[in-house]
């Protein structure tokens, strides 16, 4: 049963070639929810082994357009994981202190130690996405970061860090539906800002930037997976 597409090292990714509505055999929401609960329990059991062995760490990166479901994925899939052994971090724009260092400094200082799991809601990949789309850095700078990211992740892998990276793939139309639903839901309206709507005009630019990031930074030891998320 296919749940996601693995990006092979060296392949060229065009996100328009991937169907965000793809569900394979998961046409029954109740059955899919039950399977998520089962897999979540398995993750909890595997986490206990990870913590007991103290040999490996697990580093999970979640990326996607606004409303792609990063928060919900963490909440539901990792429901049975012991929070004492798992850290969730969300990265916004760098602070003045972080800007005084190289772009990977704020990432490297919080990667998981042995026996731990870290989940990044957005990550160092913002430094080849936002800075590119909004022309915040010269092209020579952000293009050079692909190699730096690969070297960084290679170092982590050499030190027994298991790296898994997931791009939650939604369509332009689905994002609009979710933004409107969020706007009308009092319990979620706080998550919505004018910037969310403003960013939509850069949709195609982000799709190209993501395609390049997934193409250039998916390796055997730090693979990217494209998850249909409509």
Explain how this protein is built.
The two termini are 18 Å apart. The chain has a six-stranded mixed β-sheet with strand order 1-6-5-2-4-3, sandwiched between helices. It has 230 residues and is of the alpha/beta class. The longest helix has 25 residues, at 29-53. The chain is globular. It has helices at 29-53, 70-77, 96-99, 105-108, 130-133, 139-158, 172-184, 194-198, 203-216; strands at 5-7, 57-64, 86-90, 117-121, 161-169, 224-228. The chain has nine helices and six strands; from the N terminus they run βαβαβααβααβαααβ. The chain has a single domain (5-228), classed as 3-Layer(aba) Sandwich (Rossmann fold).
Q: What composes the largest sheet?
A: 6 strands, mixed
Rg of Cα set:
18 Å
Listing every helix as H and every strand as E from the N terminus to the C terminus, the arrangement reads EHEHEHHEHHEHHHE
The geometry reads as globular
Mean pLDDT over the residues: 94
Number of separate structural domains: 1
Quote the CATH topology: Rossmann fold
How many helices? The count is: 9
Number of extended strands = 6
């Amino acid at each position: 049963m296919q749940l996601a597409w693995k990006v092979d090292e060296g392949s060229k990714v065009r996100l328009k070639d991937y169907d965000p509505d793809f569900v394979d055999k998961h046409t029954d929401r109740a059955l899919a929810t039950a399977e998520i609960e089962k897999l979540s329990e398995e993750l909890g059991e595997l986490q206990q082994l990870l913590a007991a062995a103290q040999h490996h760490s697990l580093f999970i990166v979640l990326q996607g357009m606004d409303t792609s479901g990063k928060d919900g994925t963490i909440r539901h899939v990792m429901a049975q994981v012991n929070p004492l052994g798992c850290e969730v971090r969300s990265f916004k724009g760098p602070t003045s202190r972080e800007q005084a260092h190289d772009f990977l400094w704020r990432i490297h200082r919080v990667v998981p130690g042995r026996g731990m799991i870290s989940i990044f809601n957005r990550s160092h990949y913002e430094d080849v996405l936002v800075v590119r789309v909004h022309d915040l850095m010269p092209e020579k700078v952000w293009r050079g970061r692909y190699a730096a990211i690969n070297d960084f992740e290679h170092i982590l892998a050499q030190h027994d860090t298991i790296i898994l990276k997931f791009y939650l793939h939604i369509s332009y139309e689905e994002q609009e539906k979710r933004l409107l639903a969020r706007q009308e839901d009092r319990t979620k309206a706080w998550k919505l800002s004018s910037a969310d709507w403003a960013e939509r005009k850069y949709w195609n630019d982000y799709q190209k930037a993501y395609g390049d990031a997934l193409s250039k930074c998916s390796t055997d030891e730090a693979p990217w997976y494209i998850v249909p998320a409509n």
